[in-house]
Design brief:
Blueprint lengths: L20 H14 L5 E5 L2 H12 L4 E6 L7 H9 L9 H17 L1 H8 L6 H4 L1 H10 L2 H11 L8 H13 L8 H8 L15 E5 L9 H7 L3 E6 L7 H4 L1 H12 L7
Parallel strand pairs: 1-2, 2-3, 3-4
Helix pairs in contact: 1-2, 3-4, 5-10, 7-9
Length: about 270
């Protein structure tokens, strides 16, 4: 089952405030129970990764474990330094240094749109008024996404096609979810901070797939520290932030392999 986050895609648009990751996570538990599942696992990337991490901290009865391709593993001191644009801290391994540099780039060049949505999401009405405006925003809302999506328009066969990208824009346009999806950033900011990548305190089994073109490729050391019950870690050689979209076969293989040890309990 692949639920659509409230305000996104085929889901309804919340008519009241309060639909933050914690509330959405609780809604997923209710949904699974209504569908008759007494035991289940959860997977997420991007906002789904944050919601899945939060769901894991809630540890509802029946949730056996989670899989993430954008895991919340950044130690607090590292996260703080990256947000401040500080030089790379000493004592980091090669993988940790690379992840830090990528994270620092994300904070400096990649999440400006997130702060805009978090502070004044309704001012983006232009992307609900023009399909060209929406396309421009989705294609170029941050430097990292533009780099990955541009491959499809530069003739690269790997990953997304031009039709994949246009289908995604069309779905957002036809469902009129350009603004309603932005509200989740506002909801997150109401909790006190943009805690996108930090450790959440998950204590149930976790599987991690570290794709190279993710916002940062998660080092094993940080994953082990963030998730004391890490049951799977794999560092892949292709795939990025849109892993489920860009590399569906590889992504499904990872989810199956990552959660395989939990199948006996289902």
């Amino acid at each position: 089952m692949i639920p659509s986050i409230p305000g996104y895609g085929f889901s309804g648009k919340p008519a009241t405030t309060g639909w933050n990751p914690a509330r959405i996570a609780r809604a997923w538990t209710v949904l699974m129970k209504r569908l008759g599942y007494t035991e289940f696992v959860a997977q997420g990337g991007d906002w789904g990764a944050i919601i899945t991490d939060v769901l894991a901290t809630q540890a509802p009865a029946g949730l056996l474990g989670i899989h993430s391709n954008m895991p919340g593993v950044i130690p607090p001191d590292i996260d703080k330094a990256a947000q401040a644009g500080a030089p790379t801290p000493s004592g980091l391994s090669a993988d940790e240094r690379l992840a830090y540099e990528h994270l620092k780039f994300v904070y400096a060049k990649g999440v400006g749109y997130g702060y805009q949505m978090g502070l004044r999401p309704q001012t983006l009405y232009g992307i609900a008024d023009s399909p060209v405006g929406l396309a421009a925003y989705l294609l170029d809302h941050d430097a990292r996404s533009l780099e990955l999506i541009s491959r499809a328009f530069d003739g690269h066969a790997e990953g997304l096609t031009r039709d994949d990208v246009l289908d995604n824009i069309t779905l957002t346009w036809l469902t009129n979810t350009g603004i309603s999806s932005a509200r989740l950033y506002w909801e997150q900011l109401q909790t006190g901070a943009f805690d996108f990548f930090g450790v959440k305190g998950v204590s149930i089994p976790v599987a991690v797939s570290a794709f190279p073109d993710e916002l940062y490729q998660t080092p094993r050391s940080w994953a082990e520290r963030a998730y004391p019950k890490l049951i799977h870690y794999n560092k892949l050689d292709k795939g990025g932030h849109f892993a489920a979209w860009e590399q569906p076969k590889l992504f499904v293989e990872e989810v199956r392999a990552g959660l395989a040890s939990l199948r006996h309990a289902i």
